[in-house]
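When time allows, look over one protein, given below as sequence and tokens. The question is which stretches look regular and which look disordered:
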Amino acid sequence: MDNLTKRDQPDRSKINMSEDFEVKYWLKALGVSKDELQRAVEKVGNSAAAVRKQLGV
């Protein structure tokens, strides 16, 4: 779970599907639906680079 008292930038190398604000960020950044994002994360893990490759973006 994210430390809400920490004010650093979120770790954009990982996709945290349990944080709504992160899911919304990645949906917009990748231009995919929540189902597409969820399937990609389930298939290749939560690495943003691997998910981008899987989605072809």
Observations:
- Residues 20-30 form the longest helix (11 residues).
- The chain has three helices and no strands.
- The two ends are 27 Å apart (CA to CA).
- The chain has a mean pLDDT of 89.
